[in-house]
Amino acid sequence: xxxxxxxxxxxxxxxxxxxxxxxxxxxxxxxxxxxxxxxxxxxxxxxxxxxxxxxxxxxxxxxxxxxxxxxxxxxxxxxxxxxxxxxxxxxxxxxxxxxxxxxxxxxxxxxxxxxxxxxxxxxxxxxxxxxxxxxxxxxxxxxxxxxxxxxxxxxxxxxxxxxxxxxxxxxxxxxxxxxxxxxxxxxxxxxxxxxxxxxxxxxxxxxxxxxxxxxxxxxxxxxxxxxxxxxxxxxxxxxxxxxxxxxxxxxxxxxxxxxxxxxxxxxxxxxxxxxxxxxxxxxxxxxxxxxxxxxxx
Length: 297
Ligand code: AHG
Ligand code: MN
Ligand code: MN
Prior knowledge:
The protein is of the alpha+beta class. The chain contains six helices and 15 strands. The chain has an eight-stranded mixed sheet with strand order 4-3-5-6-7-8-9-10, with helices on both faces. The longest helix has 22 residues, at about 5-25. The structure holds 2,5-anhydro-1,6-di-O-phosphono-D-glucitol and manganese (II) ion (2 copies).
């Protein structure tokens, strides 16, 4: 069995190698697949294709013992007992295409990856690495592990995929500039609405409808991203295993903070693979203000 570090490297090699193929396939896969996923959301052909390519590539990695995605009912066995013991395998949870509703409107979207050293569903504290691919004007990949956070540009040339590190120590700017809040304003609870009003008076709105693109704005310019608890859905919209945990891990390793409204997302108790959680990530001071605002009632 390979070492966890080499397994993590091999997982992100597989994700980077698959990214150009996914990007090239998107123009022809903007239509509904006619199916729904475990979260009860309609699935696009692009979601399924990305899931198939990434699933095959990640399950084939030596040292990956378990795999799950937003588009799969439960974790699939990838060979090898998952745990944090020496020589144990790792578990990988992905959102193959995050923000796929942006496909029709040709806006940014991405792929989110969480690598855990515990069986799924796992706690964010069991993450050993996390990352995302952003299909924007260029394709980038952000990877966080115990050494820090780096940003790479991923390009496909004639004989394969090239990865070049463009920022070896990605960290959240100290001065916040942008914010992006999901859901509809009337569906925001009063305490979050008051917080949002204060942030609107201070920062610039940057909300593109894909968590990966919106979080990348926050990592680049400083600020706060939220998909809050809603009146209609107290757990919000985003899924813990393959959206909230990986993003919280990345933002916290980049010097920011995360919260589910009461404390770090990484401490949310894992109960089910598709469980949802409210998501607030960004500069520490803005997350502290958020938790104070939600604590007022
Ligand atoms: P996915 O396409 O993987 O289901 O994720 C979409 C999520 C997330 O990317 C984004 O932050 C949020 O949905 C946007 O939701 P709204 O359309 O309600 O703003
Ligand atoms: Mn998503
Ligand atoms: Mn998705």
